[in-house]
Design a protein that fits this description.
Creatine Amidinohydrolase, Chain A, domain 1; Creatine Amidinohydrolase; about 375 residues; about 35% helix; four-stranded mixed β-sheet; alpha+beta; disordered N terminus; 10 helices; six-stranded mixed β-sheet; 2 domains; single chain
């Protein structure tokens, strides 16, 4: 089957789940736990390759267990790598049985992914085991993408680039934001997207001042700027890109604000490289916008990591304590949002490298007049 023009899908590299599990085993040494219980489905997919739901994993410095229910018996056999598979009827009984067999005294769990109800059931089943909350153990590993993940992120980003070119056909005077968003989404699904990463944002005119202005029933008018933020999922991996269009010839202030945001993004992208503080990347974009006199209209962080989730570490914000490392994939997305007037945001995905970064999204670099 031939691929649509402009789409490049690299699917040759295989995921090394054993290496990922080995990385988690090494991380356990600093957590002071005998084992860790993984309950987040994205982390489980990262570690094992499993694409279903209702999953737990128990990882010790020597062992790795994958647990799911009978619905996924065959799927687990086909997908899971690097783990001993256990099919359960009662999840917490199975976890307790494994913990007992491994002589686990302290079991770590992902505090951000285990709700109180589940924690209570787990605590009851493991009455003789100490449960210890952990923060970001798997998440920190997931921040640095391996070759398998980079291939898929590039494919997802390439697909999204093509989606923006399709969007230019639907965003025009008289078009309803919701209808334009639907048409764009259909075009991306036809090009191979398995799902949307989030609800497509199409915010025209004054609604462009809403950073998360979900497409509405408003009609797009000539003379307006239109902020379009889209994301797709391809082979499990998310892409994220924003462009701002002009419906008709832009006015002087529209061109000025667009120029400031574009230059702020360029300054921030130039700051991206391994070893740099994420907050310094944010400061580069924020400082440029502040110097131009629009600082109070930049109301969010400059970016975020993306991968199996649309928003994951690192955080590119003024308060971030993250440091960029090779293999991270982040967005760089400064914006200016002026109440009653509208807004401009330009967002791209970049791959962090030793001496700089590689652009993963690269369509439509200038303000397009539709």
């Amino acid at each position: 089957m031939s691929l649509p023009e402009g789409i490049k899908l690299a699917v040759k590299t295989k995921a090394d789940h054993r290496a990922r599990i080995k990385g988690l085993k090494a991380a356990l040494k600093t957590e002071k736990v005998d084992a860790i219980l993984v309950s987040d489905i994205n982390s489980a997919r990262y570690l094992s390759g499993f694409t279903g739901s209702n999953v737990f994993m128990i990882i010790t410095p020597r062992e790795a267990f994958f647990l799911t229910d009978p619905r996924y018996t065959e799927q687990a056999k086909a997908e899971v790598r690097g783990c001993k598979i256990r099919i359960f009827k009662k999840a917490f009984d199975e976890i307790a049985d494994i913990a007992k067999g491994l002589k686990v005294k302290t079991l770590g769990f992902e505090a951000a992914n285990l709700n109180f109800s589940t924690y209570s059931k787990l605590d009851k089943a493991l009455s003789k085991v100490k449960l210890k909350p952990t923060a970001g153990v798997v998440g920190k590993l997931r921040q640095r993408k391996d070759a398998f993940e980079i291939e898929r992120l590039k494919a997802s980003a390439s697909l999204l680039d093509a989606g923006f070119k399709a969007a230019m056909r639907f965003i025009k005077p008289g078009a309803v934001e919701e209808e334009a968003a639907f048409s764009v989404e259909v075009a991306m699904r036809r090009r191979g997207a398995e799902a949307l990463a989030f609800d497509t944002i199409i915010a025209s005119g004054p609604r462009g001042a809403l950073p998360h202005g979900k497409a509405s029933g408003k009609k797009i008018k000539k003379g307006e700027l239109v902020v379009v933020d889209m994301g797709v999922i391809k082979d499990g991996y998310n892409s994220d890109e924003t462009r701002t269009f002009s419906v008709g010839r832009p006015q002087a202030r529209q061109k000025e604000v667009y120029r400031i945001v574009k230059e702020a993004q360029a300054v921030a992208i130039d700051a991206v490289k391994a070893g740099v503080k994420a907050s310094d990347v944010d400061a580069a974009a924020r400082g440029y916008i502040e110097k131009a006199g629009y600082g109070k209209y930049f109301s969010h962080g400059t970016g975020h990591g993306t991968g199996l989730e649309i928003h994951e570490g690192p955080s590119i914000s003024p308060i971030s304590e993250d440091v960029l490392h090779e293999g991270m994939v982040i967005t760089v997305e400064p914006g200016i949002y002026i109440p009653g007037w509208g807004g401009v945001r330009i967002e791209d995905m970049v791959l962090v490298k030793k001496g700089g970064c590689e652009m993963l999204t690269n369509s439509i670099r200038d303000l397009v007049i539709l």
